[in-house]
Each structure stands twice: as C-alpha cells, then as structure tokens.
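Budget justification, computational time. The allocation requested in the original proposal was used primarily to generate structure tokens for proteins on the priority list. As evidence of use, we reproduce two of the resulting records. The first is shown immediately below.
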Amino acid sequence: MNPGQLSQAWTVVTLGAAFFAVVLLMYGLMAFLSKGFKTYEEKYVSGATRTLDAMYLTMTVQQILYLSFLSTLVVFIIFAVMTLNVVLAIFVGIAAFATPTIIVRFLKWRRDKKFGVQLEDALVAMGNSLRAGHSLPAAFELIARETENPMGQEMRLMVQEMRLGVTMEDALQHLLDRMPGEDLDILITSILISREVGGNLAEVFDNIADTIRDRHRIQGKISSLTAQGKMQGVIIGLLPVLIFLALNAWSPELMRPMFTHWLGWLMMAGVVVMEAIGVFMIWRIVSIKV
C-alpha cells in the first residue's frame, strides 16, 4: 500500500470514527437530558401541530423532529467526505436541522395561497347558489363537491363537522383556525352578522368577491413593478457564492485556507451573515402588503 492509499484509508477511518463519535455523543446527550429533550419536543409539537393538521400530512410531528436529526447526520457525512473538514461539516449539519421544518412551512404557504385564489370563485358560486333558493349549508356542500383541493377539502371537513352536530359558527371558526387569512375572516364575520341581523347574503358574497378580485389585481401590479428589485436581491445573494465556486474551481490551493483555518471559517460566517442581512433588507423594501 503506497502512502497515498494509506492516507486515504486513514481519512476514511477518521471520518467514520468522527461520525460514530457524533452519534454516540448525541445519544448520550439525549439520554442524559431526557427531561429537557421531552420539554423541547413538546414545545416543538405545540408549534407545528396546527401546520401539519392543516396540510393533512400523514407524518407525525415526532417523525418530522426525528427527520431533522437524520438530515443533520446525512449532511454532516456528505460535507465531511467532500471537504475532509469535520468542524465545518458539523456546523453545516447543525444548519441542516431546520430543513424539514422549512419544507413543511413552504408547503403550507403554497396551500394557503392556492386557497386564497380559490376563495373568489367559491364566493361567486355560493352567491349564485343562494339566489337559486338553496340554503347556506347546501351552498357549502356544493363547494365541497365541485371545488378542487384545498378549498374542497376544507369545505368537506366543515360540512362533516356540521353533520356531526357542530354549530355553523364553530365550524366556521375551525375553518378560520386551519386557514387563517384576512379575506376568510371578513367572509366568516359577514356570515355571522347576517345570521344575527339578516340581510342579502348573496350580495354580501358578491361584494367580498369583488374586493378580493381588486386586491389580487393590485397585488399583480405590485409584483410586476417590484420584480426588478427582487431579481436584484437574488443576484446579490448568489454573486458571492458563484465567485466563491469559480475561485475554488480555478485555484483550489488559493481557497484551501478558507476550509482549514479558523480565520477562513470566521470570514465565511461573516459573509453569510452580511449576505442574509442584505437579502432580508432588499426583500423587506420590495415587499408591499395590500
């Protein structure tokens, strides 16, 4: 065995030993701090249960938490093998702990956005149903049958609750708890007020639909006007990363101190922090709420 092969063998052994050491360390900490871990898990569950329930995911929140630990270990192994730097791999693995939570929140945001778009058509359909002589629960059942998910899914759940004896007020409040939003809040408030004092509910639905339509139109104009600023934020955020990758491919020896010396780690951490602050400030400037 030549010196190069021996060095590679020692590198693999070192990485394997480091991986098992991290696993044993995490297991020991979890066993030693079981009470604290249980408290953290309960806090994590309380913060994510509503999100998972609203998305009808089959995975439990505990599985999401364990998946976060698994992603940490996987990312640690990948970066340790690629960079041969255990310390850097540990930091990157810790940062990967939030990846499953970020994915879940993104899926929830996308579902809420689609629900808001469908709400306009649902209001028009319910208004037409009321003009045709149907009751409000019958209008809800029509939306549950004819509309795609997530609107149809949420309406089916609300109809099932009312069939099981839940009052309409409580069922509507449960819907708002699952899908919080200003437009839905206005709709539910209008329904509750109309049930108490009376009024033309079909006309109210049409007015709310017109308001939502105008809001979406204004949001579209704002998005088109701020698209350039958002693209500038993306370019500013990606430019240092692209330069770093280009320099690393052009001269690996020049960039090696960034991975092997503590000053390099400190510089990369500072760059990441400043980049995050810059992108956040640009995003806040170009994000206009209607």
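The second record produced under the same allocation is shown here.
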Amino acid sequence: MMKVLISGSTGLIGSALVSHLRSQGYDIFRLVREKTGRDESTVFWDIPSGNIDAGKLEGLDAVVHLTGANLSEGRWTEKRKESFHESRVKATRLLSDTLASLERPPKVFISASAIGYYGNRGSEALHEDSLNGTGFLAELCRQWEEATNAATAKGIRVVMARIGVVLSSRGGGLKKLHPFFRLGLGGKIGGGNQYMSWISIDDLVRALHHCLVREDLRGPVNMVAPHPVTNAEFTKALAAVCRRPALLPVPGLALKLVYGEMAVETILSSAKVFPEKLRASGFEFRFPEIRPALEHVLHSSLFVL
C-alpha cells in the first residue's frame, strides 16, 4: 500500500484528492497546522516557526503539497502578499528541506504551483518550457517552484503542478459565479478576449494521481485542459448550461478600482496554456471541452474516478 502525505488536505483540491486516492487503496497521511485532533495519520508543522515532525516523514512513498493562502479573496495588501509568500514559498522550502534531510525520503514530491507563472501573455501559446512572466504573481510562482530545489538535489522526483482555473461546484470562482448566471445576471468580464486555462476538479485529481505513478514526469507540469477558452467563450458556455442569457458584462475598469492588482493579475490576465507533458505521457482527459465540463461539475455531485 502506497503511503502518501498530503498538505492542504481539507481544501478544495486536497479533499477531492484524498477521496480519490483512498478509493484507489492508498494509505493517506495529512500534514496539518492544528495540534488538536491529531492521530497517527497526521503530521504537525508550524510554518512561521519552521517546525515540522520530521521523524514522521521517514519512509513515506510520496508527498503532495497543496497548501497556499487564497489569492482571489479581495485586494492584495502588503500583509496579504506576505501571507502568500509564507504559505507558498516558505512552506514549500520548509517541506523540501525537511524531505531532503531524511534517511528514507519519499520517491516523489508533487508541489502545487500555478499558471500564474507565465504572467499576462495574451494569445501566446504557453507550454512547460515557456519563459517566466512578469508581475507579482509570476515572481511568486517562480520562487514557489524554486523552493523545491533541495528535494530535487536529494534525488527525489519533483513535480511542480502548474494548476489552472479549477472548475468545481464546491469552491473556487465557479461556485461564486454560478448563482449570478442562474439568475441571468452573468456576463463577460472586461473585453472578454483574455484566455482562461481551466481544468475540471475530476481531471485535476486524476492528473495528480497520474504524476504520482508516472516516473517519467518531473519538473513543471501544466494541469489544464487541452482547450483553453476566452472569457467570452467561457461566459457563453456557462450561460448555456444555466439556460440563461449572459447580457450583463462587468467592466474591467470597475474590477481594477475594486480589486486593484489582484484583478489585473488574475481576473483580467490572459494565459493560453497547454498540457504538453500530461498528453505526451498518455494522460487522457475526461472533460477536454468547456461545456461538458461545466455540465458535469454543476449537475453532478460525484467525482469521476
């Protein structure tokens, strides 16, 4: 039985991954920040102080690291930027350094990253070997990925999962948008020409599992569906699934005034990203097209395993 440690196990992605891997017979351990309610399957860490139960990491087969403060909740103040850095860069470096210090380290370390690595690139086709972009988020992602260097130097197979916009009815942006579109109050954002590289929660969980078992996968891996869409195309598909018109566009200027840098680097940013490594390794998407993906995640409470 493969022993897998997961950080961020109660989040949107982590909880789905735990459910999926357990259904496949994996032995799941959780990396947690709360000391209460701990048992033999939990490992405690304190990111600010740099403390972690290193002894409990000995002999694990794999680690999947999904911790990170939410980027889309309001304006990016300096205090929030510090929390992004601590929960991503500092946390990843702590975990990577600790894994590298073990006598019996895991064979694979999957560490979350994001397609924000590429920055705002318009309609440029982006692959895993595309250059790092500019801006706060692109720089954050670069440092986030570099924080895994100690594990790589130890000889652990490291995968940096560059995750796109995750489609799920249980959380994320879609959960927030869906009620408005059901009421016919949705519409494109800004000019609607910005590209959105997305992935269904089901395919994301399967892709993470795929990276656990495929020994040829290492380095950055784009976790997005093979058919990115513009915001206007996404809006049209979501409105069709909700059987409502999408007639109320949201001006980009209004978003900039309300959310500032966050809106510029996420909602209004354009990244046309393709999953080259996943497809080359034989991964098959269950939901490669946007409308069937939306229909599934909004009309089904079950994960496709």
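A brief technical remark on that second record: The radius of gyration is 19 Å.
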